[in-house]
Model the fold of this input.
Amino acid sequence: MFKYLMPTKVICGENSLKENKNELILGTRCMIVTGRTSGLKSGALGDVTEVLKEKGIEYVIYDFIGNNPTIEECYEGGKRAKEAGCDFLIGIGGGSPLDATKAIAVYAVNDMDMYEIFEGNFKNKPLPMAAIPTTAGTGSETTPYSILTLHKINNKQSFSHPDVFYKVAFLDGRYTVKLPLQVARNTAIDAMSHLLEGFTDKKASRGSDYIALEGLRIIGKYADNLKMGNFTVDVCTNLLWAASLGGIVISQTGTTIVHSMGYALTYYKDIPHGMANGLLLGEYMERANKVMPEKVKLAMDALGMSIEEFKAFLKECLPCEVSFTEEELIKWSEVSIKAKNVPVCPFEVTREDELEIYKKCLL
Amino acid sequence: MFKYLMPTKVICGENSLKENKNELILGTRCMIVTGRTSGLKSGALGDVTEVLKEKGIEYVIYDFIGNNPTIEECYEGGKRAKEAGCDFLIGIGGGSPLDATKAIAVYAVNDMDMYEIFEGNFKNKPLPMAAIPTTAGTGSETTPYSILTLHKINNKQSFSHPDVFYKVAFLDGRYTVKLPLQVARNTAIDAMSHLLEGFTDKKASRGSDYIALEGLRIIGKYADNLKMGNFTVDVCTNLLWAASLGGIVISQTGTTIVHSMGYALTYYKDIPHGMANGLLLGEYMERANKVMPEKVKLAMDALGMSIEEFKAFLKECLPCEVSFTEEELIKWSEVSIKAKNVPVCPFEVTREDELEIYKKCLL
Done:
């Protein structure tokens, strides 16, 4: 038995927004949600405001979303969207603004306590949203998930609801082609992580596996571009599509311990999310290989790499200067073993196992 | 540039309905739309009414849908759904009831002239619908298309609208495992036709090709079952999923001349839709092979057959005793060349070409 759901309309290609302007207009008054610089630097914010002006749609811009957005930023965004009378949202950015937009869409139409959002049972349907990713990694544009930073638990926490799928997502490599190389690598490795975790975890099914393999084939095809740092708009559009495929996969399967173990690296050490996953991903695949060698071979064949080459690829793409202490790793393993995506891990994993993985990857 | 949209939730597996009862309940009062026998014989109607009774949902049954449903049957169904105050529909059956349900969902909430539906601009949002396919072929459960018989033009005509995607579809091989062998073959070949036409036509893209190949791999895997006539519930569930994948593909690409040329065979000669496609499909693939040999090879590799083997497979599975005259074929080619899916054909096609295809396949 499997369930498949991914209701977002994806429009993929160079100039996808400019050639499909009407698809952006989901209401009569808009709030654009973006980061402090990502919307501007990518060129997406300029394109969006141009379309809105042309269509006579009034808008406000909420560009206060930082990396790993806090629930407070989202709650404030919801308040402002309500005050401004907005009836639809446009999220522009990497995973942070795209995840934050979902929470803002909920808060904007629900009088609720800030933390209630994690229970997922809000009364009113969230505002409709359009997504323009400016990194090719998160896949937030094709998932019902929003991952927010919660300082009161010193970690990230997620909520999920079918009503926070985006109505439409515009994928255009023009918005990612100028990303700094390390950001392009980190985010592509985040997408890889979604595809590989979703392909190997216990919720993987024949309804998602073929999607994961397609995403891996695309990233594998452009692995050299990620190593060397040469990108064209077309390569970037393809990587955006691979990232969306990663989102489609984890919408069905969820993620597993790579993500839950990675969160501490981001929260405590400020290591970018994709890099945090990537540091742990090689060891995860080694362990998965012991319990499902045929499936891991399929994944590696799709990437066009052996596990050894895959580990070398991660190492080359993820130069990490941060140092860790054993005490930190012990503390993090105690927290991460309680995550709700531990039971779907394809191999048995205890707190001791997680500690061993952390040590092997980080010390 | 490509667009991808398929918002239906698919629940696939043995007992998918019984184990997900709440997903069936899309309103407070239901009309079940089905054929004269398909709902009963498959066992799906019994399962549905059991769930509705258990959940306390009142329902009426509209079981007047014939093969190749007429627009009149649908208009009448819409009237009855309105009179009965239904706020959601459940379609049970092969392509005929599933396509008819979509039209009924529109008529039930719109005061409109019967023929206006083909313009696709109805005012009120159609009723929400659940689908339970009892054949593995049509893919109607994952498309925004409805193909209806229109006696005033002596042909079929379709309408398409994103709001007639089903909300949810339950795929369960228990409902198809007892189908007569020829029905199983015809419908599987309809699914093949969707996958192959969608993979080769000009609207094919990297957003749909990997889905088509997955569907073809599944059908190829069970080609011997289709030849020999041995089915298990699991095989049937897999074929249902392949048919839904075919629906997902043509939701993005549409079909091409195999479908438009096949309609006349069904309208004038009562040849089942899947068989009509199948009679033309081998020659279509031969011609596609001349203009896109690499792509046709990918498709055939996914099926696990050469083109010759594929043609032999079609011949073996489609015993057709109907005879045709050249006059008929001339008349049909004059009509079918005007179809809106002719221009997406991968090779140039004139009325003379269509006549030649008809002759080669049918005389």
